[in-house]
Records
---
Amino acid sequence: MLVTAFVIVGLLAGFTGVAIGLYTLRNARAAVEECLDVLARRAAVEGVVDTKAIRDVAVFRYDALEEMTGRMSFSVALINGLGDGIVLTSINGRTETRTYVRALRGGRGLQPLSPEEEQAVRAARLGLGPEVEVADGDLLRPAGGLWSNSAR
C-alpha cells in the first residue's frame, strides 16, 4: 500500500513537472516570437543596422599655430555605432604638417586626446557633423549654413 502511494505521488509529480515545463516552453516561444516581430518591425522602419560600420563623422577645424590662420588644422572623428574608431588630426604650419591618429574604444581615446580631438569626438557622437565649430564658449554647432557669420 505504501509503495502504491509513493508511485501515485511520483507519477503525479512527474506529470506536473512535465506540464509546467510545457507551459514554460510555450511562454518562452511566444516571447521569442514577440521579440522577432519587434526586430522585424524595427528593421523595416530603420533598415538593417551594422553597428561596426562608420556612422558618426565630424570635422573640427581650428588654428593650431599662431603663424597660420584660416583654420587650416583639423581633427576628424570616424566612429562606429559601438563608439569605436579613430581621430585623425592634422596640424598645419607654414613649413610643415604633422598628422596624428588616435584610436577610440567606447567613445574614449585609448591615448589622451587633445581638446580639439575631444570636440571632434563629441560632435560626431552627437550627430552634429560633418563639420562643426565652437559657438559660444564650449558649445558646438554645425559649421556653415544659417549659423555661420564668418567667410570660409
Note: The first helix runs from residue 2 to 46.
---
Amino acid sequence: MLRWLDQRFIENPIRRAQANSDIRAREQRYNVFREGEERSNRNVQSEVRSKLEVNLPTSQLAIQANQGIVTVTGYVQTQDNLERIEPLAREIKGVRDVNVQAEVGPKLPPYKG
C-alpha cells in the first residue's frame, strides 16, 4: 500500500533498483548496530512491507510479523505477483517462514492514503 510514492516513481526500473538498494542498506545498518540481536517483529514487518511495496506496487497488502513468521494478506493483480510474495519476503533477514494468505483480486488502483 503505497503512501509516499507515486506510481511513476515505482514503475521506473532505476528507481525500483534504488529503493531496493536503500532497503538493503537499512538492513546492513541494522546488522552492524544490533549484531547478535533477534530482529523485532516491528522491524521485520516494516522491512517486508517496504520490500513488497517497491516490488509489487499495484498490490494492496497487509503484513504481520510474529517471531520471524510473516503473514501477508490482501490482494495482488496477477498470479505471478502472488508467487513473488514469499521469495521477496524471505530476502529480509529475520524472516523464518512466510504465510501467504493474499489472493489474486480485481484490478486495483494504487493506494492513495
Note: The chain has a mean pLDDT of 80.
---
Amino acid sequence: MKLNRQDYCYLRGEKMCDVRLFRSAKLDYETAAMIWKHPYHDEMILNNAAYHLQQAVEKILKGALECVGVTVPNTHRISKLVKMVYDNGANLTLTDWIDEHSEMLSEWEAQTRYDMDFLVEKRKFTGKEKRMQ
C-alpha cells in the first residue's frame, strides 16, 4: 500500500507519525456514538457500540505507541497497551475511566462479537453517553 503525505503528521520536529490508526479510531468512535444516539429495539445493539468503542481505544493506544517508535504487539488487551503507553512515554493523556476499565474494554473486543449470550449493560455506559453526544 502506498502511503500519501496526508497519512503522516510531524511530531517533535522531524519525527513522522502515521495517522491512519487515529483516523480509523475516530470512525469507530463516531460509529459507536451513532449507535448510541439511534439505538434499535434490540438489546444486542449495545454490543456493537461497545465493540466500536473498544476498537477506538485500542487504535489510539497503538497509534500513540507507534508514534514514539514502539513496535506494537498483536494484542487486543487494553491493559497491556495502557502499561506500554506509560512505560514508553507516549504523548497521550489517558483518562482514569480508561485506565480503570481496561479489562472490561478488552472483554468487549471478542465477547461482543462471538459470545451470543453476552450483553453489554447500559449502565456500563452511564456518564459516558454525554461525551458521545
Note: The chain has six helices and two strands.
---
Amino acid sequence: MTENNTTSWWSATYPQRYYAYSNTEYLLGGYPTPGYVDVAMFAALPTWLPAASDMIALTEAAWNARSSSVNQIVKDAEVQTYNAPVVVVPLKTQAATAQAWIQQQANLAAAMKAYVSAISAIASGADTTSTALPAQPADVMAASAATTATG
C-alpha cells in the first residue's frame, strides 16, 4: 500500500477548512448575512472565493452548528445572532391611540344601547312593525393591541 503525501490545494492559503463570509446581497437589519464554505469541497480554488483573510475561520463545531442558527449576521468580524431593536412607542402616542379606541368604543356602546332597546321593544311586544331583528353591532369591547403596549 502506498502512502498519500499530497497536500490539499487550499492548505497553504486557507489555514482552516471551514469559513463564513459576508454575503452583502442579503442583509438583515442592515448587516450582511453569512455565507458558509467548506474549502475542501472544491478540487481547485473557485474564482468567487474570498481570501482567507477576508473571511471568518470556523471551528468544526461552529460549522456543524451553523444550520441550527437563525437570524445570523456578520458584524464586527464575527457571525452573530441578529436581535432586532425594540421599538418603544412614546407614552403620548400610546395615549392618543387609546383615546381613539375609547371614542370607537363609545360609538359602539351607543349602537349597543340602540340595539338593546330595539330587541327589548320586539321582545316585549311594544314594537309590532318590525319583521326581522336589527343587525347586531360590531364587537363592543374589542381589545386594541395599541392600548396594551408597554413603554
Note: Confidence is low (pLDDT under 50) at residues 146-151.
